[in-house]
């Protein structure tokens, strides 16, 4: 983040993030108070943000975009004093990231640590009561497993948790996942990759400019964005329309 900020302040017009969603997040926050544009060379494991932005995933296509693409102003989401371009998660999905980070130090394998973290978390993560405030209305949910708030549709390597999200509509999309049965939650899981989970009665979907979230039982509920842990509830998410200049393909 500091290197990106320094480069932007020295006059570089395009600052390129070479990596995955977490790297894009760091570079974005380094240049957020400058006039520099963001370029992306997708080099991570999932690259959900760059895929949702319509960026080429190969080296040749990425370089062509950086050299001859167009500069577009896109929306950014904000939480915890930082900006992000993709999806923020609260609850189970954030806990998967927390557990994966812990086990990575022991297992020394990102893939094994993440998959093991996901399995164990899904099996044992306790649901929590949630207070959600948006558009001047208060919503209360029991048995909440996760909340996704974002600016693009996908996270966690292709899970289309926010299928109606757009980085150009000036709105946050919000998906609250509730369930009274862990078996039901496991059945719901595959449908998220197709974006067909919205038909389920345990899914609650909204759009808003700002979202405030609070856990009602005092549990330590983590939240994250674009793969990086930010903290624990309570927190707020807010949309910043046309906040970021990014280099996208001309087509």
In short:
This protein has 251 residues and is of the alpha+beta class.
Which characteristics define this entry?
13 strands; eleven-stranded antiparallel beta sheet; Rossmann fold; 2 domains; Tumour Suppressor Smad4; 251 residues
Please tell me about this protein's structure:
The structure is a single chain. The protein has seven helices and 13 strands. It is of the alpha+beta class. The chain folds into two domains: 81 residues, Probable inorganic polyphosphate/atp-NAD kinase, domain 1 (Rossmann fold, 3-Layer(aba) Sandwich), CATH 3.40.50; 153 residues, Tumour Suppressor Smad4. The strands form two sheets. Strands 3, 4, 5, 6, 7, 8, 9, 10, 11, 12 and 13 form an eleven-stranded antiparallel sheet that branches. Strands 1-2 form a two-stranded parallel ribbon. The radius of gyration is 18 Å and the shape is globular.
Task: Lay out the secondary structure.
Elements: H1 2-9, E1 14-19, H2 21-31, E2 37-42, H3 48-52, H4 59-68, E3 70-79, E4 82-84, E5 87-91, H5 92-107, H6 110-124, E6 128-134, E7 137-150, E8 172-178, H7 182-194, E9 203-208, E10 210-215, E11 222-225, E12 228-232, E13 235-248
Parallel strand pairs: 1-2
Antiparallel strand pairs: 3-4, 3-13, 5-7, 5-11, 6-7, 6-10, 7-8, 8-9, 10-13, 11-12
Helix pairs in contact: 1-2, 5-6
